[in-house]
Amino acid sequence: MMQKLIKKLNNRKGFTLIELIVVIAIIGILAAILIPQFTGFTDKARSTQAMTDAKQIATAADALFTENATVPGVTAIASMSGVSVTTSNLTGINATSGRTPITFTYAASVDGVNFTAVRSSDGGITVTKN
To answer: For residues 101 and 11, what is the distance between their CA atoms, to the nearest angstrom?
Structure first.
């Protein structure tokens, strides 16, 4: 009985060094392919966050302008939009020909990446990465 157990232990098969190296190489190749794609997703998410904030600012600015018939200030826009804005990152607030849409430039920092959102007189918002 003991001899059978010893013989069974001696006949154990395992992975060879070559097989392990091949598996590690395949995992390395897959990681090299996938990691750059994941960074693209995070950049897109940051850009989308900046666009969403700019749209909230635009909606608040237009609503305040329609309600009060004057170009709103940064403080009023900040309190209505829910976006943390200051006079240093929200500039150029203006109403073209005394009507909506309100134009502005918004400098946003999302997770340490800087973006600039510009709202033009036609109401379009363009976000660029700095």
So the answer is: 80
User: Which DSSP letter does residue 130 get?
Assistant: -
Residue ranges covered by each domain of the chain = 18-129
- In whole angstroms, what is the distance from residue 15 CA to residue 19 CA? 6
List pLDDT tens digits, range 23-35. Answer: 999 999 999 988 8
Coil, strand or helix: which one is 88?
A: coil
- The span from the CA of 103 to the CA of 118, in Å, is 8
Instruction: Find out whether 107 and 86 touch, Cβ atoms under 8 Å.
Output: no
The SS3 assignment for 101 reads: coil
Q: Which residues does 17 contact at the CB level (< 8 Å), separation at least 6?
A: none
pTM: 0.70
CA angle 20, 22, 24 (to 5 degrees): 70
* 111 φψ region: left (φ > 0), alpha (ψ -120 to 50), beta (else): left
80 closest CA partner among 53, 57, 101, 103: 57
